[in-house]
Specification:
Blueprint: E1 2-8, E2 13-19, E3 24-28, H1 35-47, E4 51-56, H2 62-65, H3 68-75, E5 79-81, H4 99-102, E6 112-113, E7 119-122, E8 125-131, E9 140-144, E10 149-153, E11 156-157, E12 160-161, H5 171-182, E13 190-193, E14 199-200, H6 201-207
Parallel strand pairs: 3-4, 4-5, 5-6, 10-13
Antiparallel strand pairs: 1-2, 2-3, 7-8, 8-9, 9-10, 11-12, 13-14
The structure holds zinc ion.
Zinc ion binds near residues 59, 61, 135 and 154.
């Protein structure tokens, strides 16, 4: 599996394009905010002859979903995410309240709920969904055992952890998710976070000051 990273929007978020050897790919957290960012990924997909077969969100905070409508419409894909974050999308919910930032971007409902332990397959690749609540109740991480790689969303960062002061965030859940679920993975697992630089599970066990 090859991984292409797009750093997008003003927060800035890491959008990951996971590309299987047979050229099927899934996109995680399409944070594309501007037309230029949208065109950039579109051009990349076209030029590399990839077939985009999946759209996944690690959670439903606005910086991770700006480009959902664009990808969903352009490639005719359902939005896959944990339903624990649905409340953020509701009328009167957190995201609607941030109209100043959301602007003309359409907020889309989750089309397919993902559960802890569920396997997402594309090409010859496989991702396991790990429910890692705390930053938000519906936060998930995605683990590829074959590639020793974890997409951690905003749960775990290089020498840092996700915020727990956003709607229905929970410090205890966040700590449990990291300690019991992510730190159970092999030390050499590469961790690709929603923001910032990559790290490994082993490095975080040793050096993360919040743990
Ligand atoms: Zn977030």
């Amino acid at each position: 599996m090859k991984i292409k990273i797009f750093e997008v929007n003003m927060y800035p978020v890491n959008t990951y394009l996971l590309i299987d050897e047979n050229k099927e790919a899934v996109i995680v957290d399409p944070g594309f905010y501007t037309e230029a960012e949208q065109q950039n990924v579109e051009r990349y997909i076209k030029a590399s002859g990839i077939k985009l077969v999946g759209l996944i969100n690690t959670h439903q905070h606005l910086d991770h979903i700006f480009g959902n409508d664009f990808i969903k419409s352009k490639y005719n894909l359902p939005i896959q995410a944990h339903l624990g974050d649905s409340f953020l999308l509701e009328e009167g919910g957190y995201l609607r309240a941030r109209k100043d930032i959301i602007g003309s971007h359409r907020i889309c409902p989750i089309d397919k709920g993902l559960e802890d332990g569920e396997l997402i397959r594309f090409g010859g690749s496989e991702l396991r969904v790990i429910h890692t609540p705390g930053h938000s109740p519906g936060s998930i991480s995605l683990y590829s055992k074959a590639d020793s790689c974890l997409i951690s969303g905003d749960c775990l960062f290089q020498e840092s952890i996700g915020r727990h002061d956003l709607p229905r965030g929970n410090m205890r859940d966040l700590m449990f998710s990291i300690r019991q679920k992510l730190f159970a993975l092999p030390d050499d697992t590469h961790v690709l976070s929603g923001h910032g630089e990559p790290t490994t599970i082993g490095h975080e066990k040793k050096y993360n000051p919040f743990m």
